[in-house]
Write a structure and sequence with these properties.
- The protein is an alpha/beta fold and 369 residues long.
- It is 40% helix and 19% strand.
- It contains 12 helices and 12 strands.
- The protein has helices at residues 24-39, 55-61, 69-76, 94-106, 171-187, 205-217, 230-239, 251-264, 303-316, 319-334, 348-361, 364-367; strands spanning 12-20, 45-50, 79-84, 111-117, 135-141, 151-154, 162-165, 192-197, 224-229, 246-249, 272-276, 282-286.
- The protein has a 10-stranded mixed beta sheet with strand order 2-1-3-12-11-4-5-10-8-9, sandwiched between helices. Strands 6-7 form a two-stranded antiparallel ribbon.
- A hairpin with a 5-residue loop joins strand 11 (272-276) and strand 12.
- The chain is globular.
- The structure holds adenosine-5'-triphosphate.
- Adenosine-5'-triphosphate binds at residues 23, 27, 84, 86, 268-269, 288-294, 300-301, 304, 341.
Amino acid sequence: MPGIPMRSGGQKARIAVIPGDGIGAEVTPQAVKVLQAVSRSADRELEFVEFDWGAEKYLREGVTLPSGAVELLRDEFDAILFGALGDPRVPSNQHAADILLGLRFKLDLYVNARPVELLHERLTPLRGRTEKDIRLIVFRENTEGLYVGVGGVFKQDTPDEVAVQEDINSRKGVERIIRYAFEYARQNRRQRLCMSDKSNAMTFAHGLWQRVFKEVRQEYADIESRHLFIDTLAMEMVRDPRQFDVIVTCNLFGDILSDLGAQLAGGLGLAPSGNIHPGRTSLFEPVHGSAPNIAGQGIANPLGAVLSSAMMLEFLGFRLQAAAMRVAVQAALRENYVTADLGGDKTTTGVGDWLANFVEKNNLAKQLK
Ligand code: ATP
């Protein structure tokens, strides 16, 4: 996804690798392998440091996010490459909440960027749609909304039980994500922006989104902007995805929309994402989770992790290498060198090796110069 604001780096780009649980631990090494292959053509070096945070460590030591971890990542690393967290042995998913939500909130990664790009027409379930019809990006607010954990239960486990979950929306939080989406559109020559909410029902919280949107859009007269209620947007994304270019929305709706988008473009195994604070240490991860049902079988699709790594390279300023990784993924799709979820019969490692060989053999980043 070209044009993510960079973190200006030194001589080396330092990457913290957190493979995590389940298929996260299987796909992440493939992404690192392709990153290593593609970075050989770069002027700057990529350095990887792996961290074993996840269910295994939590069960063994009771530790989720170790103390000092946030400061370490913030001060010593440029980016984080993340796999997935989730393990049936930890039904509460406490470790996942502490680590992933902890990093999103504590590193203030307020932009969740989820590109939806169809890379091969056979991958979409929409009849008659091709690559040029499905090319949009969803910006999900990532630090507020219903995910802040404010609320409680009253009279638990009685017939009178009441549960409250607060939806937090600050002017600062709403404004910065809407502004980021407009800036992205302008810098990447994306013509159209759609802000989506449910202000007809959620009059207070999304009334704020409406007011902020009206103010900010005035500064971006060069971008064609409009508003759709979230239910209409979900319907329109399926009916005619060509209408959409940049979409910006709140935390909950962005979560749902990006899974809808992932399916339009070939499924969860292919979808990348970035959790970004411009100019600061940011985190890149595939949209999928730990998929315990297929973990350990060597059949997980590594392309979501590889495309997330390409987003990370873009963020770090390795523009040509990012493009080379995307070209390699497109080639694998064209050749049908893919895992079972995409109709192929290759293994996770097989696809990773193929991509690494492809970028090296073709010296892709040099060719793209
Ligand atoms: P978690 O609890 O960690 O979110 P989950 O299984 O509930 O895990 P996902 O991992 O997001 O949710 O995926 C849902 C299903 O999609 C998986 O069970 C798996 O069948 C399929 N899937 C997801 N990612 C991949 C992948 N990379 N390769 C192949 N199949 C995948």
